[in-house]
Amino acid sequence: MLACKMKPLPFNLCNPKKRPAIINRSYALLHFIAATSLIFYRVSSLLHSRPSLPHLLMFASELILSLLWLLNQAYLWRPVSRKTFPERLLQEKGEELPGIDVFICTADPKKEPPLEVMNTVLSAMALDYPIGKLSVYVSDDGGSSSTLHAIREAWKFGRSWLPFCTRFGIKTRCPKAYFSRYEDDLGEKGYHEEKEKIKQQYKWLEEHVKKAGSSGGMLGETCSLNSINHPAHIEVIQDESHDTNQAKMPLLVYVSREKSPSSPHHFKAGALNVLLRVSSMISNSPYILVLDCDMRCNDPTSALQAMCFHLDPRISSNLAFVQFPQKFHNLSTMDIYDGQLRSVFLVKWPGMDGLQGPMLSGTGFYMKRKALYGDIVQEDTDPIQLKQYLGPSNELVKSLHRSNHHNSVNNMDSPSRLLEETRNLASCTYEKETQWGKQVGFLYNSVVEDYLTGFILHCKGWNSLFCDPPRPAFLGTATTKLNDTLLQGARWNCGVLQVALSRFSPLIYGLSRMSLLQTMCYAHLSLQPLYSLPMWCLATIPQLCLLNAIPLYPKVSDSWFMIYSYIFIMSQLKHLEEVLSTGDPMWTWWNEERIWMMKSVTSYSIGSLNAVLKFFGLREANFVPTNKVADDEQVTFYQKGIFNFQASTIVLAPLVTLVSLNMISFAGGLARIIVKGSNWNEMFGQIFLSFFILMVHFPIVEGMMFRKDKGRIPPSVTLFSLALSTCFLCLGSLILMP
Ligand SMILES: O=c1ccn([C@@H]2O[C@H](COP(=O)(O)OP(=O)(O)O[C@H]3O[C@H](CO)[C@@H](O)[C@H](O)[C@H]3O)[C@@H](O)[C@H]2O)c(=O)[nH]1
Ligand SMILES: [Mn+2]
Predict the structure, then answer these.
(1) Distance 323 CA to ligand 1 centre (A)
(2) Ligand 1 centroid to 268 CA: how many Å?
(3) Which residues make up the binding site for UDP-alpha-D-glucose (predicted)?
(4) Which of 40, 55, 273, 657 has the fewest beta carbons under 10 Å from its own?
């Protein structure tokens, strides 16, 4: 009894979400029955008459949609939510908290302005964590002098910023966010004077960094250097003044790895692996927080919250990472492009959290360093074998068995030798003939390194956790332009399909290594680009047949029609229920329907095409960083919820072509029924489908015909697309002619 009372209170709690689970499972059961009978209907009708190509295509589409639907149910099976108690953790483990190395990646000073990177760095340095146990590393793949300059300035400003935050308990520790939005009224003595003082300091800094940015070039003197060709530059940011009265600061290290056009550099995964090695020489903390350069820390307690899991003896031994959701500071209420990725972070990840844990999501996760070193790094592994894995550095191998220590650079034995070693670890050639990117560190096989790395960790038996506290832990910049959204989606879909086409294909590789439900989640994401096939079919074939009076769906009076209606209506209602249950307004449902269909015929298709081309070696992998700067005009469109069609033709043309095609066939089909008196009963399904597509994509119709502003669809694209859709319909009709 006494022992029971003495038991320390847990640092975290996990609550199964019972009601959603019941709703999801009941819906899944009914929908499964309906979908199975629909397949039965198709098969039997194909057997009874000579199958035509349109019927076969419809059947194939329905099969793919059913498969993806089935895989998707795994996310909905066992959702949970979690809560942490950082105060309990501090009470019990305050003194023995482990070190954390924060990794921040940036690659392009034009798309990722140094001022923003600097803000992220400051917010990370100001995390609520013992200063001596926090180190921040910035990886600059662009090797840009203005980024380095901004980092140095960040350090100087941090000297006043950090004490200010701690003294007055400031919650918003990203200076830009604090000064631009955060209105507070801390009655504390001296607060307002201090705030004014530091505000002036920040204003000066902002102007200074912007000015330096506009004249900035590459590190080093030679102008032949550029973002894909430069030597390694590693700098521990320090104060020249050596004033011992100054406030203590977390360690801040700038790392620009060596790059040369002749060596592959593996994008962000490559950058993170360099940081892993370099940091192991300097602070070697057992935990790592990875942030994209735009993901500022919004809640300084996130580190403590993550430690509530990592230090919980009930779960810590198998726990690889704690993932926080990506949230964004620049979303509009309409969020027409679904920049918030609602279904991923509010439905899918909490769902996976009830299984083996959410997927790794690139940014905002606290990872155990050991998990990244792979199974090979054991107490008793032979050092020679270790070197085959990790490369020739003795120092790196030694670091594996060294418990973390915070090497304040000043009391290192020989800082210059250490920096020399880090440059070696950051060189282009270091990874040659090692297992980096294959079995060690972040993996290289896909441009979505996060998805693949997390998948392999789960396959090896590691778990992960999802932590979504009410105050967002991190806030990033969402894409606010149609073009950026669709091209970013294309890269992600290319990456996941690359995995599906590799030997790590989740359905094959995962099934024997993790639970069925967890495998289904990974398989769903990796096969998601396949949505493009049924979506292209459903937007063209029924329409073509409508024009030619070929029915593809049962008659309205037929009882099979009920099954189709049931499936359609129930999936819409289920989607609506899901939107409302995550606290979003009704219009989110409509917006998501639209952007999902738009993505399936653009992002998913382009991504699939790229992945297939890469599979056959016809195309190089690439990772063009997403734009994080927005001009006023673009922001105005986005804020008002108006589509901005200033986008590349490769994404616009398919959308406009499909919409025009639906317009023509809807009008044609309707006219035919009215004028020629063809069978309404038989063609209703197809008429409705075209109508639905046009309703959902009304903004495109508007952009083609009614808008005159800059964001409309260019008339050239409209004309081109009209011609294309007419050609398709004419040719198609010729082929279908009996
Ligand atoms: O060669 C490169 C390319 C990119 N990056 C950095 O990678 C981060 C993510 O790039 P971003 O352009 O913002 O891509 P997103 O599509 O927004 O990123 C999402 O998808 C990526 C791939 O799955 C993940 O790595 C990210 O964490 C996740 O936010 C940024 O900080 C970049 O600076 C590099 O360091 N080196
Ligand atoms: Mn990003």
Answers:
(1) 16
(2) 6
(3) 111-112, 141
(4) 40
Q: What is the pTM of this model?
A: 0.95
Nearest residue (by CA) to ligand 1, atom 20, is 362
Q: Among all ligands shown, which has an atom nearest to the Cα of 293?
A: 1
Written in H, E and C, the secondary structure of 80-127 is EEEEECHHHHHHHHHHHCCCEEEEEEECCCCCCCHHHHHHHHHHHHCC
695: tokens are 């309703």
Amino acid at the residue 717: V
**Nearest-atom index, ligand 1, CA of 476:** 29
Task: For the chain, give every domain's residue range.
Answer: 18-77+532-586+617-736, 99-181+197-208+225-238+247-285+382-440
- Closest of 215, 282, 294, 223 to residue 255, by C-alpha: 282
At residue 226 the predicted structure's pLDDT band, cuts being 50, 70 and 90, is confident
Q: What mean pLDDT is predicted for residues 335-344?
A: 96
> Between 224 and 49, where is the model more confident?
49
Contact 736, 548 (CB under 8 A): yes
Quote the distance between the C-alpha of residue 342 and its chain's center.
Answer: 11
Interval between CA 603 and ligand 1 midpoint (Å): 17
**Residue 355 C-beta-side C-alpha neighbours within 13 Å:** 24
What is the pLDDT at residue 3? 46
Protein residue whose Cα sits closest to atom 32 of ligand 1: 106
- Residue nearest to ligand 1 atom 8, measured at CA: 292
Q: Are strands 296-297 and 474-475 parallel, antiparallel or unpaired?
A: antiparallel
Distance CA 698, CA 545 (A): 23
Query: Among 141, 268, 428, 485, which residue has the most ligand 1 atoms within 8 Å of its CB, making it the best to mutate?
Result: 268
Q: Residue with the nearest Cα to atom 27 of ligand 1?
A: 362
| Local structure of residue 359 (DSSP, 8 states) | P
Burial 4-38 (b: 16+ CB within 10 A, else e): eeeeeeebbeeeebeebbebbeebbeebeebbeeb
Q: How far is the CA of 292 from the centre of ligand 2 (A)?
A: 6
Predicted ipTM > 0.90? yes
Coil, helix or strand at residue 341: coil
CA atoms lying within 13 Å on the CB side of residue 510: 25
Quick one: how far is CA 645 from the chain centroid?
23
Q: How far apart are CA 628 and CA 473, in angstroms?
A: 20
Angle at Cα 719 formed by Cα 715 and Cα 721, nearest 5°? 115
Helix-strand-coil percent breakdown of the chain, rounded to 5? 55, 10, 35
Ligand 1, atom nearest to 479 Cα: 17
Name the residue type at position 458: H
- Residues that are catalytic: 141, 450
Return the closest-CA partner of residue 23 out of 648, 691, 575.
Answer: 575
* Ligand nearest to the CA of residue 360, numbered in listed order: 1
Rounded CA-CA distance 518/359 in Å is 10
For residues 517 and 504, give the distance between their C-alpha atoms in angstroms, rounded to a whole number: 17
Beta strands in 141-280 (DSSP E): 233-236, 251-256
252 φ, ψ (degrees, to nearest 5):
-130, 125
From the CA of 36, how far away is ligand 2's center (Å)? 40
Which residues sit with Cβ closer than 5 angstroms to ligand 2, an ion?
Answer: 292, 626
Cβ–Cβ < 8 Å for 447, 498:
yes
Task: Indicate which residue's Cα is closest to atom 13 of ligand 1.
Answer: 626
Q: What is the DSSP letter of 512?
A: T
Note the pLDDT tens digit of each residue in 574-599.
999 999 999 999 999 999 999 999 99
The pocket around ligand 1, CB under 6 angstroms, is made up of 105-107, 112, 139, 141, 267-268, 271, 292-293, 362-363, 448, 450, 488, 492, 623, 625-626
Provide the sign of the torsion angle of the four alpha carbons 453, 456, 460, 465, taken in this order: positive
- Taking only the tens place, the pLDDT of each residue in 667-709 is 999 998 888 876 889 999 999 999 999 999 999 999 999 999 9
Looking up tokens 């798309």 gives: 111
